[in-house]
Amino acid sequence: MKKKLSELKQVDGKLETDFQPTTLSQIWGDRGTTKFGTTDAEEYTKTLADMNLSDLQTHSIGVGIVPSDNREQLTKKLLREFQLHVSAYRVPKISRAKKETSPDLSKAAARILAEGR
């Protein structure tokens, strides 16, 4: 997956994404592929299907899930953990345009919201 030169920033050479980094490692370029090997759900599902039960149990220990003898349950747990991991890496950026277009609160609304402090 080569990127065109026009798509890169001159400052750091990184491709701009539509996702906001949430950790320091993401700012440094981590794309979330270290824990599961990929961020593509189809590719990860295929990888799990190719593993035998022993490999699944070893992989689940590496991911931080308690292994079980039931292949279906273990696969579901791994897929759920994978989806949580990927969603943590894909937090959408908050655009400045949305911030600027938000309406000002009336004094009554501000007073009601201030009651919860």
Q: Could you write a compact summary of the structure shown?
A:
By secondary structure, this protein is mostly helical. 50% of the residues lie in helices and 3% in strands.
Notes on the structure:
By secondary structure, the protein is mostly helical. It has one domain. The chain is 50% helix and 3% strand. It has a two-stranded antiparallel sheet with strand order 1-2. Helix 2 packs antiparallel against helix 4 and helix 3 packs parallel to helix 4. The model has no long low-confidence stretch (mean pLDDT 78).
**H-E string:** EHHHHEHH
Number of domains: 1
**Biggest β-sheet description:** 2 strands, antiparallel
Uncertain stretches of 5 or more adjacent residues: none
Q: Whole-number average pLDDT? A: 78
Range of helix content: 40-55%
Strand order, biggest sheet? 1-2
Tell how many strands the DSSP assignment holds.
Answer: 2
* Classification by helices and strands: mainly alpha
Number of helices, where a helix is a run of at least 4 consecutive DSSP H or I residues: 6
Shape: flat
Instruction: Using the CA coordinates, give the radius of gyration.
Output: 21 Å
Distance from first to last alpha carbon: 50 Å
Strand content: under 5%
